[in-house]
Amino acid sequence: MLVSIESSLSHAASRNFPNAGFDKMLMQTHEARLTALRQELKGRNLDGFIIPISDEHMSEYVGAYAQRLAWLTGFGGSAGSAVVLANKAAIFVDGRYTVQVRDQVDEKLFEYRSVPKDTIGGWLADNAERGARIAYDPWLHTRKSIDAARKQLERAGVELVAVETNPIDSVWQDRPEPSAATAVVHDAALAGRSSSEKRSEIADWLKKTGHDAAVVSALDSIAWLLNIRGTDVDRTPVALSYVISHQDGTAEFFIAPEKVTPELTQHLGNAVTIRARDEFPDALAGLSGKRVSVDPDYGVDAIAQLLEGAGAEVSFNRDPTIVPKAVKNAVEQQGHRDAQARDGAAVARFLRWIEINAPSGEVDELTAAATLKAFREEHGDLRDLSFDTISAAGPHAALPHYRVDEDSNIAIPPSSIYLVDSGGQYRDGTTDITRTVWVGPGEPSREMIDRYTRVLKGHIAIDLAVFPEGTVGAQLDAFARQYLWQAGVDYAHGTGHGVGSFLSVHEGPQRIAKATSGQAGSDQELLAGMILSNEPGYYKPNGFGIRIENLVLTVKREIEGAEGDYFGFETLTFVPIDRRLVDKTMLSPEEIAWWNTYHSKVRDILAPQLLGEDLDWLERECAPL
Hints:
Layout lengths: L5 H4 L20 H14 L4 E5 L15 H6 L7 E5 L3 E5 L4 H7 L6 E4 L5 H8 L5 E4 L6 H13 L3 E4 L4 H5 L12 E2 L2 H4 L3 H15 L3 E4 L2 H8 L1 E2 L12 E5 L4 E4 L7 H7 L3 E4 L4 H6 L5 E4 L6 H9 L3 E4 L5 H5 L3 H28 L7 H14 L3 E4 L4 E4 L22 E7 L1 E3 L2 E2 L2 E7 L6 H18 L3 E2 L8 H9 L10 E3 L8 E6 L18 E4 L2 E4 L3 E4 L2 E8 L8 E6 L17 H18 L5 H10 L4
Parallel strand pairs: 1-5, 3-4, 5-6, 8-13, 11-12, 13-14
Antiparallel strand pairs: 1-2, 2-3, 7-9, 8-10, 10-11, 15-18, 16-17, 17-20, 18-19, 21-28, 22-23, 24-27, 25-26, 27-28
């Protein structure tokens, strides 16, 4: 079947809503929306539909036009899926969203299912009738995920069907249009390498691996390859587009014409052909007889369908831009240092503000998040936040991925722990930092201090790690957890993720986490130039949460007599860590030395940017432990 990109990009008016009895007012309820979708499916002779949080690029954050799951269910998390049948439906989320999904999604409409224990294919095999036709939008799923679901469904006699147009788009009457913002040039003075150099590197990979072309569909990969940025997706500075990169170093760039400026055209030059975004499917069909590489994690099923339908040979390989993008060059490394320094001054001012104002009990989570953003804006060149700020008070801090909104917002309780995980997008770097602080009056409990100090010890262990060439992040993960394990506790998230350069705050393939079979990045060795977060934590359900996060740069270590190449980390984030939660007697002399050296650097970097009482506060917080 030839599938159309318009299924995901066109406005909801592509079909008229089939039942005039459902007007816009009635369609404000999730029950009405679910009923409307079921009527649409019935009219198409379909028995069910799978709805992911996804766009045509498998992005972590998606534009408003692609928020189909949120529109249908009310769920506001960044990862999840739902399945709708004629008489039942289910929503699938992982452990990060166990509480949130119950707050936002009506259990009378959707069963709550837990990933990875429950799978969409397994649920459908158990609940769909034999012979049922279950639909999916091939522009919103990878071939790998569809193949896995199809195997489970075939055993149950259930058929998986790709649709040409998304049925939700037919009933979502006021669906937003995709962003029309223009793409902008990311100057080589910030990128450190020209687009021509990068395209030549990809061309060399294509020749070496015997491919004629590679489809680059991940938005941050396109931004890196062409040295462009955009504002089409909140929190990630990318432009909606596709690229087909060829063996001769040329590329075809598919983007809506209204997003192209003369400056962009001049920047891209003659070797990059600019074509309308809706020409992308025909361009794929034009690769007949070619050997084409598609990324299995970012290339959607529709891309593979179109290539295979045209007679191209599809080879599933990691996007060839991903590792070069992850290895930051010297210019990008310095840009990160500069951005972190400005960002650190803003966060330090905020922490002093919290210390002064929060003990009153009159500061709520939303106000705190807005105040932190205001401090960042004062320190210059903030283009966006790098993700929605996790401003978590009291028991909310025990939810690692809590996101405050008007419904969940609470005042920061006096005599409690407050956790703030936040970051900014600057033209020279992307920041991500977590600080956990004690809000007075009074003193934290012995349990809080013990857990905080164990998290700190794990954080220091990662920062001081030295490891041989070929080490993967999973081999370092236990360094961060060991002190928590000694107390019989742990945390459920990874210890570190990759970070982009004025790009995605969650960038692969590098990561520090428990080894998980098949998990992207589990087998990626840590290379010099890769940036990661260092963020161990501890979370007591309904009690409190702790996380300490800095960003670190992977660097080569010179060791006298070393037999081979060894690596370690350079700290990039410099903001005081709350000493009120630290038990010095639990720290080794080496750990105390780390603390004092770190805070001496914090003072050196931030003091020139602070004045008056902010500077006095910094001096106090940076005094030796």
